[in-house]
Structures are given as C-alpha cells and as structure tokens.
Amino acid sequence: MTLISFIIVLAVLGVFAFIGMKLFPIYAEYYAVVGSMKTVQAAPGVAKMPPQKIWDLFSRNLYINYSKNVKRHHVTLTRKGGYVMRVAYEVREPLIFNLDVVAKFDKSIDLYRQDPGGD
After folding, report:
1. Confidence at residue 117, expressed as pLDDT on a 0 to 100 scale
2. pLDDT tens, 80-108?
3. Are 48 and 27 in contact, with CB atoms under 8 Å apart?
4. Which of 70, 42, 68 is nearest to 54 (CA)?
5. How far lies 119's CA from each of 3, 102, 116, in Å?
6. Which of 7, 14, 56, 91 is the most buried (most CB within 10 A)?
7. What is the C-alpha separation between 99 and 48, in angstroms, rounded?
8. CA–CA dist 118, 105 (Å, integer)
9. Can you give the pLDDT at residue 114?
C-alpha cells in the first residue's frame, strides 16, 4: 500500500468515525428515552395514575438520563384500559457546514396494570 492510498483510506475512515461520533449521542438518548418509558411501565399502579403524575414520573427519569430533546408536547397519553404512552420527537444536529443530520423517533408502550397477585 502506498502512502497516498494509506492517506485516502485514513480520510475515509475519519469521515465515518466523525459521522459515528455525531450519531452516537442521538441514539444513546433515544435508548435512554425508551428505558425511561419502560421504567414508567413498571411502576406499580401506573394504569390508574392521572396523566400528570405519569408525566412527572417520566420527566424525572428523563432528567436522570440527561435527555434534553424530549419535551412535554412530544408525549401523548391515550386511554385504552390503561394508557398507551407515545413519544414522538425529532432531533436535528449539524453535521458539516450546511448539512444536518435529522433523526425521527416514534415509540409507543402500553401502560397497563401489573399485579403479580392478579386481583
């Protein structure tokens, strides 16, 4: 391998590494949001909580996980026996010059009653 081809290979790998460094925090935050949703789902009596209390529980978990892109208007609670929690948001981060990376996330989870005793 010549020096020129080695520099070209390093440049291509560098571009992919740079893109990966820009995308990793976006996806890490998404998995933190999904983890927060699962924590809310596992809370005892979540199906009977009022929506404001569910939001408070969810927002505390977001705060712990340093999630900055999810706001109250991104979260929808729909009543279906328990609740269906839907979090839909978009992240836009600058990449290079005038190019942006746009990632759209949409996740729904059922918040239902989980009683091990089955009353």
Report:
1. 47
2. 877 899 999 999 999 988 999 999 999 99
3. no
4. 42
5. 73, 46, 8
6. 91
7. 45
8. 34
9. 55
Distance CA 67, CA 77 (A): 19
Q: SS in 3 state form for the chain? A: CCHHHHHHHHHHHHHHHHHHHHHHHHHHHHHHHHHHHHHHHHCCCHHHCCHHHHHHHHHHHHHHCCCCCCCHHHEEEEEECEEEEEEEEEEEEEEECCEEEEEEEEEEEEECCCCCCCC
Q: Which residues of the chain have pLDDT under 70?
A: 113-119
Strands 99-111 and 75-80: unpaired
Residue 10: phi and psi, rounded to 5, are -65, -40
